[in-house]
Design goal:
By secondary structure, the chain is of the alpha/beta class. It has 8 helices and 4 strands, in the order αααβααββαααβ. It has a single domain, classed as Diaminopimelate Epimerase, Chain A, domain 1, CATH 3.10.310.50. The chain has a 4-stranded mixed beta sheet with strand order 3-2-1-4, with helices on both faces.
Length: about 170
């Protein structure tokens, strides 16, 4: 953990995150999530956080994954009928992405696919393409889920489609 990183996380204002994901972008991401979920049995949650809380920052790089796992639990992404919840967690201060997939999907898709998507999103974000990078990733997730998780009868919407911006 470097001093620069600590200051970046402690001093970045909350509005900074909303600058990269304005209301129009969030509405388009919400629509993409709704469209995606209509085509497969997965449930997506998209969360953007400006900076890590201090308790996670102290854990270094592992803190990012731990924060994503805690949000996966806190937001009850794990609590879907078919264990098909997916959290896409974006940490803006580090331009990092973590994807946490419930066991019903992770066992079918595998870690390599999630790692590749996280890397692609991170590259798009470093280039300043926040909305486009997110929409491409959501389209890629949709393709994966269509192949591995067919929609159940009635295909209920178990999680909110609206992106969550923290900090």
């Amino acid at each position: 953990m470097t001093v620069t990183r600590v200051f970046k996380h402690l001093l970045v204002p909350g509005w900074w995150g909303r600058r990269h994901f304005p209301s129009g972008s969030l509405a388009r991401i919400e629509a993409a999530i709704a469209d995606s979920e209509a085509r497969h049995g997965g449930e997506l949650r998209f969360v953007v956080e400006t900076a890590l809380p201090l308790a996670y920052l102290r854990r270094g790089e592992a803190g990012i994954r731990e924060r994503a796992l805690d949000l996966f639990s806190h937001l009850r992404v794990w609590d879907t009928e078919g264990n098909t919840g997916i959290l896409v967690y974006v940490l803006l201060a580090d331009r990092r992405v973590e994807i946490v997939a419930d066991r019903g999907i992770h066992a079918r898709v595998g870690e390599a696919a999630w790692t590749k998507l996280c890397r692609q999103m991170g590259e798009a974000f470093r280039a300043g393409n926040f909305e486009a990078g997110t929409l491409v990733a959501l389209a890629d997730i949709t393709v994966l889920l269509e192949a591995h998780v067919p929609p159940p009868p009635g295909n209920p919407n178990e999680l909110p489609d609206r992106p969550l911006v923290l900090g």
